[in-house]
Specification:
This protein is of the alpha/beta class and 204 residues long. The chain has helices at residues 2-7, 10-15, 17-27, 51-57, 104-118, 132-141, 151-162, 168-175, 180-193, 195-203; strands at 32-37, 43-49, 63-70, 78-85, 91-99, 125-128, 146-149.
């Protein structure tokens, strides 16, 4: 009750989003915002990339990690993010969106807005968790970009699928190898230790 008295309700906050995004874009030059509602004026999705984040991304590594996470309040929804690494190897938020759920439509919307925000970036690489919606939308919205699978998600999938962390060290070494010969040296160890895991990784 105290929090509601200070902050208002979640519903009231959503009602102020349009005004907030308008002022945000007005005060921060170059900011890209968008909000979508249904025919009744109810919130559907939104996107935001601050002007200074867009300008600063030019000086970051041209690698974007994209992922989704649940928003833990009664309305639900999911948070979509695009994060880079700056020159100090620290996380750099480029853009985020709020959508009803993680599906083809929501990722298409997010990627299209991200394209407006960052434009064409030379040798751009996207890292993600192999969600099929992300794969499809990246191919259509960012056809020139390179795709990479997140090694953390792959490792967690190995644990879930094979119920073992038997090859964790070898997987880490192989995924971080800087030369082809180093990669094969560590990957051959995975083949010896667990051929099923090796076959699963080769499919990826």
């Amino acid at each position: 009750m105290a929090l509601m008295a200070v902050r208002g309700t979640v519903e009231e906050s959503y009602g102020k989003l349009s005004s907030y995004l308008f002022m945000l874009a007005k005060i921060n030059p170059g900011t890209i915002t968008d909000i979508q509602t249904d025919e009744h004026g109810h919130f559907r999705c939104m996107f935001m990339s601050l002007g200074f984040s867009i300008r600063g991304f030019r000086y970051c590594h041209s690698v974007l990690c994209v992922d989704a996470n649940f928003l833990k309040h009664k309305i639900g929804c999911q948070l979509l993010v695009a994060i880079a690494l700056d020159a100090n190897e620290q996380l750099y938020l480029v853009a985020f969106g709020v959508v009803d759920s993680e599906n083809n439509n929501s990722w298409t919307y997010f990627m299209q807005q991200l394209r407006v925000a960052i434009g064409v970036v030379l040798d751009l690489v996207f890292v993600f968790d192999r969600h099929p919606s992300i794969v499809n939308d990246l191919s259509s919205v960012f056809p020139e970009a390179h795709h990479a699978a997140c090694t953390y998600h792959i490792k967690m999938n190995i644990m879930a699928k094979f119920k073992t962390d038997n090859c964790h060290d070898e997987f880490d070494m192989a995924s971080r190898a800087y030369t082809v010969s180093q990669f094969h040296h560590h990957f051959d160890k995975i083949k010896t230790k667990d051929p099923q895991i090796a076959a699963y990784l080769e499919q990826i």
